[in-house]
Amino acid sequence: MRVIDSPDAAALEGVVLSIGNFDGVHVGHRMLLDRMRELADASGRPAMVLTFFPPAKVVFGHATFLNSAEEKLDLLQPYRPDVVAMVPFSREYARTDKRSFTDQLRVLAPHAIIVGEDFRFGHGREGGLNDLSPIAQRLEAFGLKTLEGEVVKSSHVRDHLAQGHIVRANALLGAPYPVRGTVAHGDARGASIGFPTANVHTDERKALPLGVYAVRVEAPQGTFDGMANVGPRPSFPDEVPSLEVHLFDFDDDLYGTVITTRFHAFLRAQRRFEGLADLQAQLARDAQAARRALRPPGA
What is the model's pTM? Predict the structure, then answer.
């Protein structure tokens, strides 16, 4: 999978092209990507994804993103695109007129373009499906996917995460929500009470579900079950929420490594404790609850 920052650099023709923000790569996005792969395989043509980072809502508002650039590439990998063009989105790029955008696509001589039916592009969102149709041999536009009566949208996933509804968020995503970050030194409070934690540094624009969760962690040493605490530190309530992860049955050094934490189940909200004994007792209960939540069905 080759990664470029502009479709101009693709040096391909006759591509099967899927275009979108793909923030979260949720089950709606996966319909488009599955179709891209299917058409590319059937026609023997290269598959290409054109996406943008960060999403426009992050640039123009105070929204968070579901996936960092690296996380998005990880989620796109299973669809085996030959090329991913991840265009850096900015206020300046947003002023690109629709003709300039379609001219870039025309050079690719797309065999097919696959988008959501609400896909808009260009300055003021002036471009639409009618502008894409003349560029490709075929244009396929997918309607919004619903799941148990709910429209699958990235904004809905963010809403569920904010409310701690991790099971519902995961259902819309089609997989446990991932958070990738680098382990940094913390204040070692967890180790002093028998629950050492990895302090995971993430982009402040990354959406994090607040509370305590059962998680599965992919580290250089392997994959481990664990529990995570997400939220502001009590002494600094106005700071960006931090992610601290305790790995079960693990005794090694993670400092400086990149790990991916996948959120599986909500355990409880954050709360203050009356003392050290109260905190230790609660953490022990959390660990038991997390192990139960992560246990395979029927085990």
Answer: 0.92
